[in-house]
Amino acid sequence: MIEVNQVHYSYDSTKILHDFNLIESEKIIVGLWGRNGTGKTTFMKLLAGHLKPDQGEINIQGFNPYNHYRTNNHLCYMQEDHPFSKIWKVKDALRFGDYYNPNFDKDFAKKLLTVFKLDENKNVTRLSKGMKSALQFIIGIASNADITILDEPTNGLDMGMRKKFHKVLLESYEKNPRLILLSSHHIEEIQTLCEALVVIHDGRVFLHETMETMREKGIWLSGEKTSILNITQSHTVLEQQEMGTKMKVMLDEPYTNEWKHFAQSHSLSIEPASLHDYLLNRTEERNEVNI
Questions:
Q1: I need a labelling partner for 40 at 20 to 30 A (CA). Which of 143, 201, 259, 263 fits?
Q2: Where is each ABC transporter domain found (predicted)?
């Protein structure tokens, strides 16, 4: 469905993406994560055909999306702050979605206006950040596009609306499986939705793993400093905290039964690292801290 091969892209003389490779052929929900400035937005715009790579090839559904009339037939990209016309009302935005997406479900979209408490006659410029995010999500999910890209879809949504977002997304996906890319800085919020995760760092794909694998990455070990120092000499330490004679370290190791038994046998405490903390540490400029 998506194939990106050795893509390079620069703004003026600034390299944004380089040696960028990604293949995703399954109809699954994929999380897209990266720090600010790593190239996530550029990657999404390239997929949507808004930009042309300097080098390399991009294929969606077997064709190059740049300036191609078939792109809108297969892909829907809702940006974080989508550029709706300032004179549009909510119902005009839905008409826009219907016009550009051949599989757009108008009845479903109108139903979702009620779910997210959106007035179809309200001007889009008067929507709160959360309500605009909801409108963008409605258009994206109702598009039923083969490839749907949602950029920061939960921005501004309160907890109640985020629960509705999760429910609607999963129900729609189960009814019509397709490739959905969810770009978010809030990885803990979307990880339960995703089957795979793509991490972009330094302008390239840094990690591309199943979410099940990603959830097991990273462990915290804590105990006596001397014991921790002896054990961690041969392991990558991502973060460390010292408290007198005690020490706590995050290791780039999976949270497995072997590590649990090892910790117990050495009188150490062990717990899994949160995925968010693990990714932050892996993408620090100092990727490794050796003790």
A1: 143
A2: 2-227
